[in-house]
Amino acid sequence: MEGTVAVVGGGVVGCFIAYRLAAMGVSITLIEQEGPGAGATGNSAGNIQPASGDDDAYKIALGAESLALWRNQLPRIKEAAGEIDFLEQDVRYFYAATNDQEEEDVRRILRDVTAAGLKAEWVDGAAARQMEHRLSPSITGGMLHTDCIQMDPKLFMAAFANAAEAAGVTFQRKNQAAGLTVTGGRIRGVKLQDTSTLECSSVVLATGAWTLKAVSDWLGYDLPVEPFGLQKLHLGLGTADPLHCAVRWNGVNIVCRRDGLVHAGSRFDPAGFDAQPSAESEQWLLEQVAAILPGFQPSGVENIAAFAASTPARIPLIGQLPGIDGIYLAVPSTDGFLMAAVLAEMTANLMVNGAIHHLMDRSPLAQAKAR
Ligand SMILES: Cc1cc2nc3c(=O)[nH]c(=O)nc-3n(C[C@H](O)[C@H](O)[C@H](O)COP(=O)(O)OP(=O)(O)OC[C@H]3O[C@@H](n4cnc5c(N)ncnc54)[C@H](O)[C@@H]3O)c2cc1C
């Protein structure tokens, strides 16, 4: 590709795209208004977990591909990142069911997960409690999903920024993109808050929850993406005995990190950019933990709120924006940590080789039009 590509947004998606394009020999400048991972990414649970929500077979297949790409890239990222240990671990997730309806739902996920080539099996309640003695006696069975990775997202982003810089990415930290220069139907540059313009041949908007505002204010497009509040808890383990599996139940993931902190989340709260830790959400999350893991007594609670982009049916906005040459979007929904690797591969291959990934066809971006 000729000229510089500007990537706006230094979350996991923007960094992954910049890193992959730089590895393909493209000149990249990444513009981030705060620091790498400052948005949803750094506040996430760091689960790379296909089927982390109410996902259909398409989404689970996309997630499975992303997991495989993560596994492929992680050794290189680690090597380039230097000393930072981002507490990566393979985790087995137990999707618990406590009644017939939940069993039916989990068995449907199991079918899609195994059809996508991921490792998972059905285990009954007694076997689950043998694996993790703090699980509830009300559990009748569930899916043990053993194809998941988890890491500390803040530490990972510090490491990933090092790896991206080593691959040739130029970072503009603490600089905000304030607009785009478009002439003759194509992108020419990114206007920056410091009043300079970064000339570029293409731009990738990896602006997460800020995307609707950016494309609306700068380009006059309305896109189906909204900021969505999510709340999570960090709980003290209170014992030397770590949880022997992660647990998913009633939409809540509970995972014991390598440093012993237990993540429990997330509670969705569609409150736009006003996401605040609330006592009510904390109480609700603690109730879910107590119901499914009654043998676990948290020794302390930290309540964290942030917002991520949300899209219809959690389908990512990915591809070229119709109507203006050289503008690309890569905006996941509320599972963007997982999806970052596949979105980066799709974007880099589209930009460098013109290749359209076979799972890109459901992106709502194809129908986007200026107002
Ligand atoms: C509590 C919580 C738990 C979660 N847990 C998980 C999980 O376990 N697994 C999972 O897959 N997903 C999880 N998610 C969702 C996940 O965090 C997001 O989907 C993902 O991080 C999105 O990455 P991103 O790079 O698209 O967006 P972001 O990380 O939000 O990055 C966008 C970046 O763009 C920058 N930016 C925006 N506008 C501009 C501008 N004009 N100029 C310059 N910079 C700009 C922002 O500062 C920000 O850093 C969770 C989210 C939350 C909040």
What does this entry look like structurally?
By secondary structure, the protein is α/β, with parallel strands linked by helices. The protein has two domains: 4-44 and 155-223 and 312-367, FAD/NAD(P)-binding domain, CATH 3.50.50; 89-150 and 226-310, 2-Layer Sandwich (D-Amino Acid Oxidase, Chain A, domain 2), CATH 3.30.9.10. Helices cover 32% and strands 29% of the residues. It is built from nine helices and 18 strands. It has helices at 12-23, 40-43, 57-81, 100-115, 125-131, 153-166, 211-219, 279-292, 336-353; strands at 4-8, 27-32, 47-48, 89-97, 120-124, 141-150, 170-173, 177-183, 186-192, 197-199, 202-205, 226-235, 246-249, 252-256, 262-269, 301-310, 317-320, 327-331. The strands form three sheets. Strands 3, 4, 5, 6, 12, 13, 14, 15 and 16 form a nine-stranded mixed sheet that branches. The protein has a six-stranded mixed sheet with strand order 7-2-1-11-18-17, covered by helices on one side. A three-stranded antiparallel sheet has the order 8-9-10, with helices on one face. A hairpin with a 2-residue loop joins strand 13 (246-249) and strand 14. Helix 3 packs across helix 4 and helix 3 (57-81) packs across helix 6 (153-166). The model has no long low-confidence stretch (mean pLDDT 95). Bound molecules: flavin-adenine dinucleotide.
